[in-house]
Design a protein that fits this description.
Elements: E1 16-19, E2 28-31, E3 55-56, H1 57-72, H2 81-90, H3 95-109, H4 112-128, H5 132-139, H6 147-174, H7 185-211, H8 216-235, H9 243-247, H10 254-264, H11 273-312, H12 314-318, H13 331-354
Antiparallel strand pairs: 1-2, 1-3
Length: 355
């Protein structure tokens, strides 16, 4: 974690830009040095909304991106094991497309749109705090003034590029967009049932959390479940839900603050391509095994049926002749011919007896 410098007009020698440390807050101010080192008000700027001391943008923006990446690409964001087992058992032909669709929806379901808008807001607000004189000096590469402001701009650019790079890798490497398929109606109904079931479980967890303190690992499991619900809703074409966060009187950005805590406690782990390949490989092997067993079962039933037919009609074959080339004729046709011949011979026998 970056050690935040105390924002003070007494110690700064040139203009700097500071923001509220509360992730999601849009408070941003230009911190000017005191005249003559002691004249001026607001020596220690704070956020008017959260009443927290401000922090410099270039020291905080990296932590914001760390929190975002920890939330967006946490391994717990992969399809839940129980849900995968249910889909694999009931819809084996859709398991691969389901995994691919889920991976495609992870970033939106876990808040990529929210953090992208926030980063864009910080970038624009930062530029608005720069005066025309400072902006003109920054554009002139020969001048070396306003280095601290330039450092903040460079850090915002670097961290924004870092976030976009991860999002691009996710969309181009982890997800095969050519294989994205709409889930069948039966699978959609099954996912809606799963959503409703976990909705009730989360409601119970919220009641417990409101009455007693719970370990941080349980808090993470709670947040993981909420974000997995959001991902599933995106997969079904619905918008991510925020009602759970609203019920707890916190903003949507609370997720990123919490995941930054989880990241500091080493409770998060970024999923990789090998994790996805392992996930898909397990169920691909199961599908192949299932298909192999079905083919074997069909072959056994076919052979068993043939054996029973041969045993059942063996006596009739003894009473029949073979074709000219020594082969047996069609079974059902020859059985019918044999029965007609036996009936005709029986009638002839009755007539000769009467005479």
């Amino acid at each position: 974690m970056v050690e935040h410098t105390i924002v003070s007009r007494k110690t700064t020698n040139e203009d700097r830009i500071a923001i509220c440390p509360q992730l999601g807050c849009k408070t941003i101010k230009r911190v000017k040095p005191l005249k003559f080192g002691f004249l001026g008000f607001g020596k220690y700027p704070i956020c008017n909304h959260h009443h927290l001391p401000l922090v410099y943008v270039d020291e905080r923006i990296g932590e914001i991106v760390d929190a975002s990446l920890a939330c967006l690409f946490d391994k717990s964001g992969l399809p839940p094991k129980k849900l995968l087992i249910n889909v694999n058992e009931e819809f084996p032909n859709e398991i691969n497309s389901f995994i691919n669709n889920w991976l495609y929806c992870i970033t939106i379901g876990r808040g990529a749109k929210i953090i992208s808008i926030y980063m864009d807001t910080i970038s624009k607000s930062y530029l608005k705090q720069i005066t025309k004189k400072q902006l003109k000096a920054l554009k002139d590469e020969k001048k070396i003034s306003f280095n601290v402001i330039k450092k903040g701009m460079d850090e915002i650019t670097l961290q924004y590029e870092r976030l976009l790079k991860h999002l691009r890798v996710h969309s181009e490497v982890f997800v095969n967009t050519k294989e994205l398929l709409n889930p069948s109606r039966r699978l959609r109904n099954a996912l809606k049932t799963w959503l409703k079931t976990f909705d009730n479980e989360i409601s119970e967890i919220m009641k417990v959390e409101g009455t007693q303190a719970i370990p941080i690992t349980e808090v993470k499991r709670y947040y993981d479940q909420i974000l997995n619900l959001d991902t599933c809703r995106c997969l079904l074409g619905l918008s991510p839900i925020e009602k759970y966060f609203k019920n707890r009187s916190v903003s949507a950005f609370d997720r990123f603050s919490k995941y930054f805590e989880f990241w500091q406690e080493n409770l998060t782990q970024k999923f990789t391509q090998s994790d996805i390949e392992d996930l898909c490989g397990i169920y691909k092997d199961e599908i192949k095994t299932r298909e192999y067993r079905m083919e074997n079962q069909k072959e056994i039933m076919k052979n068993d049926t043939k054996s029973r037919l041969d045993n059942r009609y063996g006596v009739i074959y003894l009473l029949t002749d073979t074709n000219i080339d020594g082969t047996f004729p069609n079974k059902m046709y020859y059985i019918g011919v044999t029965i007609r011949k036996l009936r005709r011979r029986f009638l002839e026998h009755l007539r000769s007896t009467e005479n």
